[in-house]
Amino acid sequence: MKTPTAIEIREDTYQIDGSYYVCNNCGWLYLYISEKPVEMCPRCFSGMLTPISVKNLQDFQKNPVEKALPFQMQLVELSAAFRKFGSGIPFAPKDLTPGDLLQKVRKIYLPMFMVDTRVKAKWWAETGFDYGVVSHKARYDDNQREWTSKKVQEIRIRWEPRLGFLEREYNNVIAPALEEHNSIVSRIGDFRFNGNISKKVENLDDVYICLPNRKASDAWPDALADLQRVASEDCRKASGADQLRGFKWEPDFLNKEWTLLLLPIYSTFYSNEEGDLLPVMIQGQTGKIFGIRRASMKKAKRISLILIAFSAGLFLLSALILAGSITFPIFLVFSIIGFLFSILFCLGASIPVLLVWNFNRNKNLTEMNF
């Protein structure tokens, strides 16, 4: 295993040196930064990681890293989040505890593309300029029995056509680098980019850096939509307008440079009674959790069998007491009470199984804010 290092490519980018792996189940590619042996895939926990050569990577998977969002959730906060995740589950699996989940936590960086480009474009739009109009509204006052006039100021918009030429450099326009990016973000929430971006990964050890599975050319339309939004705002400001509508342009994009932004998430898992490993994902900034919550039918059946056995034992004891009531009539009362409780315990034995069945028949996909 290589010793983790960060090799600077240019002043603001660097290439992380490590070993490359692919999951034989979900197909995600990783750059693993540790001297520890690799384990199962930290995303699906269903496949093993197989070493691959850097020669087998495509060019868009070799883009240098420019920035990274740091992990902000501390271990004590993760423990509290796991406790909240497991609360309310009837007969939870034995390893669905904060301690077990915390022990199996893995750090993952998800990639996003960042593109720098110089734009030259002709543009045209309608620019809107706000202006105030003073009018008077008359109304009849029933109390004073006379008409009164009230001064009212309204804001209206004057629309004028504009066209111009834009030449500007735009940096760090982001676009998803994973096909699953929108699905993941919809579950664990958006990341905050407001001034909390580090130049380099703070700690390279024992971190799984996921590599893009989407080509930069496929991500370009997402970046283009953001570029158009930012460019239209720049044109509005340059025109001195208050509003802009119908923005169109004919852009040329020069010197496009692609780099990566790394987004932090934690992942862990617990096992159900069939031995399946159920992943739990945690947003590395906010602690929002997503995962499937399952109750243990095996635990419920065990409790039900105990209740049935106790009911059977109580029934037999009540029968013996009933036999003794021939000699001691007072025993008849105790035997009747025993029979009633044995019936109640027998009926109650189905409750644990029904609770678990009802809980598990729903998906119970949990999204929690911490």
Helix content: 25-40%
List low-confidence stretches. 1-9
Strand-residue fraction? 35-45%
Query: What is the β-strand count?
Result: 13
Structural class: alpha+beta
Query: What is the first-to-last residue Cα distance?
Result: 36 Å
Q: How many domains make up the 3D coordinates?
A: 2
Task: Give the mean pLDDT.
Answer: 84
Radius of gyration: 33 Å
Q: Overall 3D geometry?
A: flat
SSE succession: EEEEEEHHEEHEHEEEHHHE
Helix tally equals 7
Sheet with the most strands, sense and barrel status? 11 strands, mixed
Layout: helices, strands, pairs:
Elements lengths: L4 E6 L2 E5 L1 E5 L5 E5 L15 E4 L12 E4 L6 H12 L11 H6 L2 E36 L4 E31 L4 H8 L18 E4 L5 H24 L3 E29 L5 E7 L5 E4 L4 H28 L6 H18 L2 H11 L3 E4 L2
Parallel strand pairs: 6-10, 7-9
Antiparallel strand pairs: 1-2, 3-4, 3-5, 4-9, 7-8, 7-10, 10-11, 11-12, 12-13
Walk me through the structure.
The protein has helices spanning 75-86, 98-103, 181-188, 216-239, 297-324, 331-348, 351-361; strands spanning 5-10, 13-17, 19-23, 29-33, 49-52, 65-68, 106-141, 146-176, 207-210, 243-271, 277-283, 289-292, 365-368. By secondary structure, the chain is an alpha+beta fold. It has two domains: 5-116 and 167-211 and 257-291, no CATH class; 298-364. The strands form two sheets. Strands 3, 4, 5, 6, 7, 8, 9, 10, 11, 12 and 13 form an eleven-stranded mixed sheet that branches. A two-stranded antiparallel ribbon has the order 1-2. The longest helix has 28 residues, at 297-324. The protein is flat. The relative contact order is 0.18.
